[in-house]
Amino acid sequence: MSNFDVTKARNDFPLLSRKTEGQFPVYLDSAATSLKPWPVIERISQFYSFETANVHRGAHFLSNQATEAFELAREKVRSFINARSTQEIIFTKGTTDSVNLAAHILGSFWFDEGDEILLTELEHHSNIVAWYLLAKKLRLKIQVLPISDDGQIDLEAADALITKRTKLLAITHCSNALGNYPPVAELIKKVQAVGGLSFVDGAQWAGVKPTDVQKLEADFYAFSAHKTFGPFGIGILYGRKDLLENRPPYQGGGSMIHEVSFDKITFMDLPHRFEAGTPNISGVLGFSAAIDYMNKFDWAQVAAYEENLRRKTIEGLSEIPGIQIYGPGKDQSAGPIVSFGLDRCHPSDIGQILSQQKVAVRAGHHCTQPLMKRLGIPATVRASFSIYNNEADAQSLVRATKKAQEMLT
Questions:
Q1: Which one, 86, 167, 189, 355, has the greatest CB density within 10 A?
Q2: 35, part of any domain
Q3: Which alpha helices (DSSP H) does 82-171 contain, by range?
Q4: Same domain, yes or no: 185 and 312
Q5: Global confidence as pTM
Q6: Cα dist. 264→241, 253, 324 in Å?
Q7: Full domain range(s) for residue 373
Q8: Catalytic: which of 144, 367, 377, 408?
Q9: pLDDT category of residue 121 using cuts at 50, 70 and 90
Q10: What CATH number does residue 220 fall under?
Q11: What is the DSSP letter of 248?
């Protein structure tokens, strides 16, 4: 049993103290976005109130101060994921932006016509569409790793699908719809053995477990600040330095150039070459505060706490007639996500009834339509937990779902 102090953590999140129609909210939608703690909120307010300035361009003290804080944030991200250099850390708008940037960087530099990109049936649309577009442009082939009924990757199928034509594995570190932890490190090694590269979508992992891109041997890694207790509109693309060097810019504009004339333009070194225009400075500083906040916790304790909460939730829901749990069971290790449905009930109807009881969940296909098709369902109800959820939240979910079952069947 974890010694994690959830009561102390809950006090850091102001949204949980605000009643709506006389009730405190039960927030179980952290897979969509995490709540924001006071240190992040206060850091953004501090910047806009007393530190407003652009970065990298100004000659005055406020700009110098903002630039120093901005680049310190980059170092914090480097340390957070154990990258080798800050040159490997590119600030983006979010995970989706990062996937598209990675596809641009690789492009025709890495792929030849007929090469293959290996995806899985677990992937978020963001980790499908960008590679689909690149495949159409360069005449590549998309291969898909199948999963079992509970969302596990078929490794025998992987051995058959990974060939000398496999140039990229693009895979989630944690399924946003089911919570599965695919065997990412094992699959990366299999692809490395045939000379391929890897892109890992860490959006659901980075706010739950420590990330070590060197240990993982990922060539590219992406995640978003807003799912790691930070603000919206900021993401990270990590890329191995040797894969980023000498690659053409993604966009043109200020901050990414060295010299400009009408005849010739030279570009900045890494990582600024890929960060055109005025960045989301307040977002980066808020993200910096979020990393400081996360670094206060023992994440082994957090993971054990969230895993126990997930299992208790599955146990409670399993007592409801007609319940269907999708993905890993309570005896399997998984992220803090429980996806479920009720016989003869549409997930959207269940979600609405839960919302009326001030239990916030997500109902839908979760941007994983291929996964829903594989499972033979249109959608699920997804409850997702974080450091501010407690057993009372899980019990509220079970009670609200029982009421939905009584009303809809």
A1: 167
A2: no
A3: 95-110, 126-138, 155-161
A4: no
A5: 0.97
A6: 25, 14, 62
A7: 6-30+298-408
A8: 367
A9: very high
A10: 3.40.640.10
A11: P
Q: Are residues 240 and 383 in the same domain?
A: no
Domain end residue (candidates: 268, 294, 320):
294
Q: Is residue 25 part of a domain?
A: yes
Q: Which of 129, 76, 73, 133 is nearest to 280 (CA)?
A: 73
Q: Looking at the domain assignment, is residue 1 inside a domain? A: no
Residue pLDDT, tens place only, 1-58: 468 999 999 999 999 999 888 899 999 999 999 999 999 999 999 999 999 999 997 7
Residues 281 and 266 in one domain: yes
pLDDT for 246 beyond 90: no
Catalytic residue status for 345: no
**For 53-67, 197-211, 370-384, 386-400, which range has the lowest pLDDT when averaged over its residues?**
53-67
Spatial separation of the C-alpha atoms in residues 93 and 255, rounded to whole Å: 16
How many C-beta atoms lie closer than 10 Å to residue 273's C-beta? Answer: 22
DSSP code of 253? S
Query: Residues 289, 303: one domain?
Result: no
What is the CA angle 273-274-277, rounded to 5? 90
